[in-house]
Amino acid sequence: MSPHIHPPTLQQQTPTCPSRVSFSQRIVTALAVLAMLWPGLALAGENDADASGHAHHHQHAHQHGHQPAYNGTVQAPGGTVHQAPTQAASYLENKGQWHERVHFRADFGNLSVFAEGDRITYAFISLEDLDAAHDLRHDREHENQLEALRNFPIRGHAFSLLPIAGRMSQPQGLEALPTRYSFFKGQDPARWASGVQGFEGVVLPDIWPGIDWRLGASEGRAKYEFKVAPGSNPSAILLRYEGLEALALNDGALTLSTSLGDLTEAAPYAYQRDVQGREIPVPCRFVLEDGIISFELPEGYDASRPLVIDPVLVGSTYSGMSGPSQWGFTATFAPNEDMFGGGEAFGVGFPTTPGAFQTTFGGSVDMAISRFTPNADAVIWASYLGGSSSDLPHSMIADDAGNLVVMGTTASSGYPVTAGAYAGSLSGGDDIVVSKLSPDGMTLLNSTFIGGSGEDGSNGDGSLLPNYGDQHRGEVNFDGAGNILVASVTESSDFPTTSGAYDATIGGSQDAIVFSMTPDLGTLNWSTFLGGSNSEAGCALKVDLSGNVVVVGATKSTDFPTTAGAWITAYGGGTSDGFMTRLNSTGSVLDASTYIGFNSQEIAYFVEIDEDGYAYAAGNCGPSFPVSPGVYNVPNSTQFILKMMNDFSAPVWSTQYGAGTGSGQEMAPTAFLVDICGNIYFGGFTDANLPVTADAFQSIVDPSGDFHFLVLQPDAL
Prior knowledge:
By secondary structure, this protein is mainly β.
């Protein structure tokens, strides 16, 4: 099973018992957020997502998966171009986050448009290369996959459209949009930008006498038009392209040849409006002479009325999508039930010279964080967060004040950090990063690195990655005092630990790591390894009613630490076992610990604590996983849910769920929640025929895969 998401976190504001329908709607809406990309859609034809985390005294749910992101395709020379649903483009003002020549920028999938004072510059990157990078991210058997992806070459091409005999103009935004954007890029706060305004379009006014040059979008595609005032002369419009390999006029349309293939500028459409406001077409066509483009109006027009000349850039080598290419990773809820979504956004930088260029995938990947309204019908704010290399958000959580804490990984030495951070520089390889954004997304309140000399935060053991994206699990959470807790993974023997930690020494090739930081991310309260002599991955954690920290994940170690009287104290065999471990509130004592394994591949992806303090776990398993009497179950399935006794001596109950095939991964678990009434919510991505109820919203699975959602009564009855 290839998809993956980490979970949106569900919050509960009152002690009353909510309806299962209410919680179901919230989870489904959170899943929908992961299908919405900031500000666009995933480029490779699917949306890979992962969401995790949430706060003390709140309810939460976790997800891992991906899904189709397009509603249609068009065929083009050299490959398929993906067509996104129509949505308003956003031309963002430059407040110092980009090159000084840029006044506004808009992104349309793999195409970026830059408005300068004397030209429009277009830069686009290869869909073929991005698809290949996406395939590499799926290839968990690839040796050194993360490093290979980070350095994966991406081809691009840039070209500019210049007015001939036109005047320098100060571009102006048209129709301000409500969403505000922030850019926390690099370690120089002077280069950060907050409250960046987006617009539906841009105008370069009076570029020729009485003629405005307007930029906008049409059906998700970049476009421009000329608005000719009454009495002005449209023959003054003269244009020239720079950076193309060739330019030709074919059947009334312009063919723009680049190093990545041809683009087409469709035959222009011109019109005027009569006294009733009706649109009256005016015949118009391109003229191309010696590389200079002009417009001919063979039947004339009414010079007493405004004239609009409207070409559209269409076709072949760019996707026409609105927004930068992005793959979703994580989601959570705000205290007011707004939703946060996070992903990796691939965006090309401003090309200072036209022509072919090459970048790397990792060199252009940033965290993209956005805040949505509760029903996900609008983006309130959005922000880029990152440095000059690959930056990925793994898990997010909002505190009671609405501040958003993001935990992820970075390979960027220039990842943004704040004064007083626990660590201000990259230690080596990938580091874990933890950052806190203000509720309005305008301020980077706190941000720090934490790591050792090896790879931190990314699971590099291919045998512990049955689902796509499992390398980016882990969770951030809070304790009762507002300290920030993280469960993750490390290969660094020198990952920082603290005096008195339960385990200050790495046990194998990679260990789970659990740590606590002060709310300002300036001090490491405590930090401990958790593992045996082989390989572990920490997937999730929660704080129980006594302030202890319950961690779940996967292990391949026959000597993983367990406690006397635990349910399972010996490795169960197979590819891996799950584990459930309880540490005390200072990370110094292993209070209870058990394997979860039965000679197959067990991984505990999620943990929940109910109102009575019982711990629950959910994940993947083999068909021999035990099923308690009387619980709902689908025998011979490969997903499990269990409720553990408080001393971890045995499950209160356990069950299997799935398609009953007994083989492979029938579902990639993506969401898990136990509400205050004990109702159990479990979701995932699947292409298997899982059980559905008679009134199911969707009763048939798409062969390419769908999300599946299950609600069980308390104690799985």
